[in-house]
Design the sequence.
């Protein structure tokens, strides 16, 4: 992809004001704030969740004590798919790859002793995002923190679920309706909340190239803007609360160029195409996570080094928050030791490396600017293709993204097999007797205890109030009124996640993907 | 020409991470095998039923969610009950060595972890069925 040498010829068509601008100025190629990390270092936010709410609460306090500056909740798969912990389909999955949250009661335990007005929280939750947000708001009420003071993010990006991550529940149309309900509600009641974290991370992890990650993710962003406008919202009421989430993969300069191109594309389209007037609508703010799929199960300590380079690319690309993967994540959820090393990696970057001193230090590099242009042009070509298909949802229904990603994933693997692509410890510098590191185990008692907790909750609450709250959810699902206030009432009555989602499953139906691998 | 090896590639449980399953399915297809892919979110019952209906030689499960100690034994048990005890059961995912040993004792074949070369998977299946 790259040439041997880049010169001023490669950047001859760049107009500084038009294409780069100062940081904090349109088109924000160089960064969203004038002073960037001089003003405030990125938020160090380790994605974390394991076992029960009690276990994860301990882990959060551990991370905060080690100097982490924001929280990020990893839910287990039953929660992600809208099942209570004691549901038949949850068997064997409770607390395994995240924390089990079945009701407001679990949420209260999760944040016990953590004041919500002092911390910002990101929740990686999609199909049930509105309900988990309702749990969070209701918990805030109990702590005496009103919803206008809550700061955080729900992922709430269903389009990328159909494209890559595959944890959908409902079909695209009702999913977009729930999302626009959340955008409208938060604009009014939870103004500091990021309502969607438009995610390229999972697209990349599913095997896309950097260009595909950029293009498909920003195309999703446009689709949300169009959905909001179609729902009758003024673009400037909700666009400032849309944020992004990108992957930091191994090709160092290409990744930095990707973040810069993303900012420029978003600013241009938001201003020129969607006619947003509020400058905050033009800003592409993003979280970054280093690439889990680049980690190796072999010679696990090498993963620390991979992660450090990837983290550096995110910082040089101007990320607002960062998760660094732990060395042991190809084997299990991170141990305390491994996650500490991962967090320390960020702290070393922020405090020792000097990269926070000057904004966009690589701006003006022939190579980087040429790469940024190239990625932007490539993304525009993809936008045209998607438009020709009829937009993001029809492209999903035709399997366009899925096919593109599957092809790239297979090609990537074939490059490793043919040694065209070298991965240390996999196809070069292989060790046969590398020592194992200690990994975290989730005991079977977690599932038993959590199921007992949910059953006890159902037996002890006012079930008449729960029924009437669930009826209100059903009515709202049918009449098209905003679902969020009904989710909140149901949360306050201690209706469970599974109960609320079940009502919506009955009303909206479930999405099924045609099983093809190409 | 020999009969083509028939492989069921399945994604059990709630996990949606299908990159590995799809890449392996492509590799097995390119190696001349007949691949049937179940798609996502399959229960053990659905998988075993598909194995019976498709008359497969191999059932390959991909589990990245940590639920492997529930899913593999359940599928194995149902396979035995359906008279599929001679069908090779293999798979891969985020599975610690210690659990691989335990599953092996239940009759589960080789399990491949991240970084496993595709050709090893192809060769393993061919050798096991020869």
Sequence:
């Amino acid at each position: 992809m790259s040439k041997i040498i880049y010169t001023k010829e490669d950047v001859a068509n760049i107009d500084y004001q038009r294409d780069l601008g100062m940081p904090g100025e349109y088109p924000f190629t160089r960064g969203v704030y004038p002073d960037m990390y001089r003003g405030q270092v990125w938020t160090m936010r380790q994605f974390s969740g394991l076992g029960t709410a009690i276990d994860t609460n301990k882990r959060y306090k551990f991370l905060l004590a080690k100097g982490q500056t924001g929280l990020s909740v990893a839910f287990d798969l039953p929660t992600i798919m809208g099942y209570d912990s004691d549901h038949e389909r949850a068997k064997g999955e409770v607390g395994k790859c995240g924390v089990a949250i079945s009701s407001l009661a679990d949420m209260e335990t999760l944040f016990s002793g953590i004041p919500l007005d002092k911390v910002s929280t990101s929740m990686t939750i999609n199909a049930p995002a509105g309900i988990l947000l309702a749990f969070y708001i209701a918990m805030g009420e109990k702590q005496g923190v009103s919803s206008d003071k809550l700061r955080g993010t729900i992922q709430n990006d269903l389009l990328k679920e159909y494209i890559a991550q595959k944890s959908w529940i409902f079909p695209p149309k009702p999913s977009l309706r729930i999302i626009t309900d959340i955008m409208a509600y938060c604009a009014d009641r939870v103004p500091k909340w990021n309502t969607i974290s438009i995610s390229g991370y999972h697209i990349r992890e599913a095997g896309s190239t950097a260009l595909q990650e950029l293009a498909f993710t920003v195309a999703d962003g446009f689709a949300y803007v169009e959905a909001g406008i179609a729902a009758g919202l003024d673009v400037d009421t909700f666009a400032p609360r849309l944020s992004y989430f990108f992957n930091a993969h191994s090709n160092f300069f290409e990744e930095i160029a990707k973040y810069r191109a993303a900012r420029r594309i978003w600013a241009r389209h938001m201003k020129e195409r969607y006619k947003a007037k509020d400058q905050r609508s033009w800003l592409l703010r993003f979280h970054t996570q280093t690439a889990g799929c680049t980690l190796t199960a072999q010679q696990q300590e090498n993963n620390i080094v991979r992660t450090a380079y990837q983290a550096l690319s995110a910082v040089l690309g101007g990320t607002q928050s960062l998760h660094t993967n732990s060395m042991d994540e190809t084997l299990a959820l991170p141990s305390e030791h491994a996650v500490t090393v991962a967090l320390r990696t960020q702290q070393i970057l922020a405090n020792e490396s000097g990269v926070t001193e000057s904004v966009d230090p690589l701006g003006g590099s022939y190579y980087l600017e040429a790469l940024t242009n190239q990625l932007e042009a490539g993304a525009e070509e993809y936008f045209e293709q998607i438009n020709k298909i009829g937009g993001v949802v029809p492209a999903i229904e035709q399997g366009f993204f899925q096919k593109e990603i599957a092809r790239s994933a297979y090609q990537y693997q074939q490059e490793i097999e043919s040694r065209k692509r070298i991965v240390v410890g996999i196809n070069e510098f292989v060790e046969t007797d590398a020592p194992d590191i200690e990994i975290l185990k989730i005991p079977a008692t977690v599932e038993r205890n959590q199921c007992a907790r949910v059953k006890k909750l159902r037996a002890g609450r006012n079930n008449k109030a729960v029924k009437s709250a669930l009826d209100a959810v059903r009515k709202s699902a049918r009449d098209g009124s905003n679902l969020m206030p009904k989710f909140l009432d149901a949360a306050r009555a201690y209706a469970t996640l599974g109960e609320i989602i079940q009502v919506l499953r009955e009303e909206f139906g479930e999405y099924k993907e045609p099983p093809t691998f190409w | 020409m020999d009969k083509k090896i028939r492989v069921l590639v399945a994604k059990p449980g709630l996990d949606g991470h299908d990159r590995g399953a799809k890449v392996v399915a492509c590799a097995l297809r390119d190696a001349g095998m007949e691949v049937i892919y179940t798609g996502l979110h399959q229960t053990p019952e659905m998988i075993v039923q598909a194995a019976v209906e498709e008359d497969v030689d191999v059932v390959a499960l991909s589990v990245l969610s940590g639920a492997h100690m529930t899913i593999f034994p359940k599928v194995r048990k149902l396979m035995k009950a359906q008279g599929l005890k001679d069908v090779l059961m293999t798979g891969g995912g985020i599975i610690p060595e210690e659990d691989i040993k335990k599953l092996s004792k239940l009759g589960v074949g080789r399990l491949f972890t991240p970084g496993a070369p595709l050709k090893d998977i192809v060769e393993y299946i061919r050798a096991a069925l020869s």
